[in-house]
Amino acid sequence: MNSENFQTNKKGIFAVGDICSYPGKLKLILSGFHEVALAAVECFKRARPNEKYRFEFTTSSKTIQSRLGKK
């Protein structure tokens, strides 16, 4: 298990949450959210290698607010 992006020993297969373990892991739902975020960024990089991943926040992103129907 690679705890930088949560890829298993099988290329392109990721494991997060209760199914994975690593030294220092805290069994909290918060840890699972963190693991999913890191795995998702890695998946994005593989699916769209020529694009830069951008984090956006609902409270400040006009794009996200527009998609949610907020004006």
Q: Termini, distance in Å? A: 43 Å
User: Regions with pLDDT < 50 over 5+ consecutive residues?
Assistant: none
Radius of gyration: 15 Å
State the helicity in percent bands. 25-40%
* Number of E strands: 0
Work out the helix count.
2
Biggest sheet, in brief? none
In sequence order, what are the helices and strands, one letter per element?
HH
Structure notes:
The protein is mainly α. The protein has one domain (17-67). Helix content is 35%, strand content 0%. It has two helices and no strands. It has helices spanning 29-47, 62-67. The longest helix is centred in the middle third of the chain and has 19 residues, at 29-47. It is flat, with a radius of gyration of 15 Å. The relative contact order is 0.13.
Chain-wise SSE layout:
Elements: H1 29-47, H2 62-67
Which features characterize this protein?
71 residues, mainly alpha, 2 helices, 0% strand, flat
Please sum up the structure shown:
This protein has helices at residues 29-47, 62-67. The chain is flat, with a radius of gyration of 15 Å. It starts with 28 loop residues before the first helix and ends with a helix.
